[in-house]
Amino acid sequence: MAKITFIDIRIENFGPFRERQILDLTVFPDKPVVLIKALNGSGKTTLLTALQIGLYGYKGANLARRSEYDQLIAGLQRSDAIGDAAIEVNLAIDRGGVRTPISVRREWIRRGTSLVENLSVNSGGSEDSQLTEGWDELINGILPAELVQLFLFDGEKIEALANPERLPDLLRRATEVFLGLGGIDALGNDLKAVERRANSRGKDGADELNQARADAEKYEQQCEAFAERITLLSQQQADLKNTLDRAKIALERFTATARRSGLSAFEQAAQLRANVEAAMKRRKETRTALAEAVGDPLLPLAWLGSFWDNYKDQWNQDQQAQHANLLASEFEKRDQRLLRTVALPGKSLEAFRLALKEDLFHFRTSFQRKALLVAGGNPEEIQPKLYTAVKLVGTQAAAHAKAVGYLTRAELTVGQIPAEEQLANVFSSLQEHSKAVSGAEIQLHDTAHELDTVKSNLAHAEVKLNAAKQRLRLEFRGDALEQHGLEAAARAKKVLALFRERLLASKAEWLSEMITAEFRELLHKKRMVSRVVVDPGTYSVSIVSSSGSLLPMERLSAGERQILAIAVLSALIRERKGRFPVVVDTPLARLDQKHRETLINNFFAKVSHQVLVLSTDEEVHGQAYNALLPFMAAEHRLDYDERRHCTVIINGGILN
C-alpha cells in the first residue's frame, strides 16, 4: 500500500509569495510534526491551498464549478511578479519497501488575458510523461480528491463538520470511498448497460416495440442525468450551508463587537430617553407627594422633641386637677348628707363637721392647680395622627430619593448614547455582513428549490422508466433467454444495492467505536459522554451522555464541537493512517489550554507519520508549545515584508 511523505514545497509568484520560496517539511519517525508560525495574512491559508491544488489541481480546491477554480487561481496571481506562478511539491512515495522521490509541479502561464495550467511530474531528475499522464489516477488511488479536505483542513472551519445536517453525508461518502464502493457502483452501471443493450436488440422489429425501447433508453438517460445533477446540487448545497454558517458567525461576532462599541445604546436610544422622561415625571410626583406630606399641620409637633413629652405631662396634671375638683364637689355634697343624717350630741356633731371640712380642704389643696392648657388638645388623640404623618413623610422622602437616583442613572445612560455619525462605519460594515448572510440564504434557497425540482423530475422519470421496462418485458416474453437476462440483471442490481447498504451499516458500528474513543480521549470532560452513535441506516450522529440520555449537539460549546469534528476526522484519517500527511491550519485558536494540550498529545502526535501545523504567533506558545516540542522535527516561520508586500519563508532548521 503506497504512502506519501512531503519533502518540501516551493512556491513562486503565488498569493503573498513572490520570489521562489522553499519550505522544508522533513520529519522523523519519533518527531512527525513541523510547526509553521505566521501572523494573520502572511500566507498560512495560501500555503494550505497550494498543497491542495499542487497535488490535485481543480479537484483539490473543493469548488462547485471549474470557473470558480479559475477565479481562485487568477486572484492569487501577483501583478508585480516577473515570471509565471508555480507550485512545486517534492515528495516521496513508498511502495513495496521502495522509496521513489517525485516532484509535482503546476505552473500557470499567461496567454493574453487567460491562464493556462501546465502539470509536470518529475522522477529521477527529469519529467516522466507516463507518470504525468497517470498522476491523477496515482494520487487518487492513495487518497481520493474528494477526501483531501479531511487531511488538509482549516481548523477554524472544522467545527462546521459537527453540524448534524451535513455530518451524515460526510461520514457516508467517506465510508463509501474507503470501502471501495465505487466498484459496486461501476458494476451496477455495467448491469444497466447490459439492460440497455438487451433492450436495443431487435430494433428492426415492429415500430411500436422500437419506440418502447427508445423510450426506455431515453428515460434511463434522463434518470442518470437527473442523478448526476442531484449529486452536484447536493454538494453545492453543502458548500452554501458552510458559507451561510460562516457569514452568520461573522455577523454575530461583528454585532457583538458593535454592541460593545455603543450600537446597543444607540438602538435603545428611544427607550432610554423615554426612561428619562418617566423618571422626571416620577420625581415630580414624589416631590409633590412629599410637599403634601410635609404640609400636615400636626407634623411640627414631631420636631418639639422633649417639649412634646412635657406637654403630655402637663396635660395629665391638668386632667388630674379637673378630676380632683369634681371629686371635691361630690365629697362636699356627701358630707352635707352625712351631717343631716348623723344623730350626735352638739359638741360631737360640731367636731365631726370640722373634721369633714378639714379633710375636704386637704384634698382640694393637694390637687388644686390652675389649668395651663386649653381644652381639646388631648395628646392621646393627637399621638396616632402625628405618628401617621411622620411615617408618611419618611415614605414619601424615600420614594423621592429613589426617583432622583433612577433619574440620575437614566440621564447617565442617555449621555453614553453615541451620535449617529460616530457609528457610520459600524452601520456600513453591519449592512455588508447582513447582505452576505442574505445573499447566502437566497443562494441556498434557490439551490434547495432547484434540488427539490430535480428530485421530483427524477421520480417522474423513474416512474416512466419502470413503465417502459415493464412493457418491454411483456413484449419480450417470446424470447426466454433475453427475458431471463433482463430479470437476472434486475435481481443482481437489487442484490448489489442491498449488499452496498449492509456494508455501509456494518462500517457504522466501527465508526461509532472509533469516534467515541477519539472524542473521549480528546475531550476534557471525559465523564460527560458515554458513547457517540452512528446510525447504520442514515449515518446520523447522536451523543449519549453518561446518564444514558441523548445529549443535543447544541449543548456542546464551540470548543467541544470542534473537538467532536476533530474526533470524526481522526477516526476517518486512521482508516488511511500511514498513507498521507495531515495539514492543519489554525487548529487551536478556539480551544482552552487544557484542550490544546490534549489535542497535541492525542492528535498531532499520533494521527499521521507527518503532521504540518500552521499556527499564528499566539496560538502555539507557552504550555502548548512545550507540549508540542517533543514531537516537533522543525519550526519554520512565514514573515510578511510590509515594504516589499510579500512573504518570506524562514526555515528554522532541524530540532534536536
List the helices and strands and how they pair.
Elements: E1 3-12, E2 21-24, E3 33-38, H1 44-56, H2 66-75, E4 85-95, E5 98-111, E6 114-123, E7 126-127, H3 129-133, H4 135-142, H5 148-151, E8 152-154, H6 167-178, H7 182-200, H8 207-267, H9 269-294, H10 306-341, H11 346-367, H12 379-415, H13 424-475, H14 480-522, E9 529-534, E10 541-545, H15 558-573, E11 582-585, H16 593-604, E12 611-615, H17 623-628, E13 632-641, E14 646-650
Parallel strand pairs: 3-12, 3-13, 8-11, 11-12
Antiparallel strand pairs: 1-2, 1-4, 4-5, 5-6, 6-7, 9-10, 13-14
Helix pairs in contact: 7-14, 8-13, 9-12, 10-11, 14-15
What does this structure look like?
It is a single chain. This protein has 17 helices and 14 strands. By secondary structure, the protein is α/β, with parallel strands linked by helices. The strands form 3 sheets. The protein has a 6-stranded antiparallel sheet with strand order 2-1-4-5-6-7. Strands 8-11-12-3-13-14 form a 6-stranded mixed sheet.
Sum up the overall morphology in one term.
elongated
> How many whole angstroms does the radius of gyration measure?
47 Å
What is the end-to-end distance? 31 Å
Quaternary form: single chain
Q: Tell me the fraction of residues in β-strands, as a range.
A: 5-15%
- Count up the helices: 17
**Number of separate strands:** 14
Q: Helical percent range?
A: 55-70%
Low-pLDDT regions: 202-206
> Based on helices, strands and strand pairing, what is the structural class?
alpha/beta
* Average pLDDT, all residues: 78
Q: How is the main sheet built?
A: 6 strands, antiparallel
Please give the order of strands in the largest beta sheet: 2-1-4-5-6-7
